[in-house]
Amino acid sequence: MAVLIVLVIFIVQTIAEKRILLNDPSLLQSQIHALEKKMEDMVTKYTDLSVKYSDLFTKNNDQSAKYNDLSAKYNTLLTKTNAGGIFVRWGRKDCSGNNTELIYSGFAGGSWYDHTGAAAEFVCLPRDPDLTTKFTSRAAYIYGSEYDNNEFGHDSGNDLPCSVCRSTVESSVLMIPGKSSCYDGWSMQYHGDLVAGSYLHKAATQYICLDEHPESLVAGQDDHNGKLFYPVRTSCGSLACPPYHNDRYLTCVVCTK
Fold first, then answer.
1. Please, which residues bridge with residue 190 across strands?
2. Among residues 173, 200, 168, which one has the least CA distance to residue 188?
3. Residue 212 φ/ψ, nearest 5 degrees
4. Band of the pLDDT at 178, cuts 50, 70, 90?
5. Closest by alpha carbon to 120, among 251, 227, 249?
6. Of the candidates 126, 114, 112, 116, which has an alpha carbon nearest to the alpha carbon of residue 161?
7. C-alpha dihedral over 137, 138, 143, 148, to 10 degrees?
8. What is the rounded distance in angstroms from the CA atom of residue 114 to the CA atom of residue 227?
9. What is the model's pTM?
10. What confidence tens digit (pLDDT) does each residue in 216-246 have?
11. Which contiguous run of DSSP H or E holds residue 210?
12. Contact 228, 168 (CB under 8 A)
């Protein structure tokens, strides 16, 4: 019974103390101030986080724009790099340097000028051939190409060099006979004189563009004939004259785009 009385007295005192705390204006005011301070701190932190978020969002947009720009440039560069047009610069050991790279330089060659049924094309033979001996039957033949007169600035019998070039930025290649400059939108790689085999010879031939300033090969001065070439001149009749004129020599230009 005594224990019960003590417990009742303790509960009554606790309730009284709580009533006193709740009815204490200064205590309530301090608690309110504490809550307000916490609220202000939270608002400040929220504002700071909001500013940081906006800054990160802006930076992310800038990085995204830069990435898209670099990606577009990379794709353009990749396309241009993979799509380089290839051409032969006849009469030279180097390329023009107009956004080009040298694949190899070598010797101009082809069929014997007076062989019936010979191949028509001029070819640019490399300086480091890989040869074989596995065949024993009849064969076609290939010879070097020579100047057959001194009108190109070299003695008759001098051999003709060539270079295989690649455009690093343009994919289309066009040789224009009768022009010494390219049309609008095209880049000139080199220009010179249109040449081909003689109509008096039996072998088939083709037209090529010989550089305006042709070179010759060292130790290639002996006159052995081979694949010969001559300047090309006009013959009016089936050829429209004008704009062409009879017995005029044709220029040529190699263009890329």
1. 254
2. 173
3. -60, -30
4. very high
5. 227
6. 126
7. 170
8. 9
9. 0.65
10. 887 655 667 888 889 999 999 998 899 999 9
11. strand 208-211
12. no
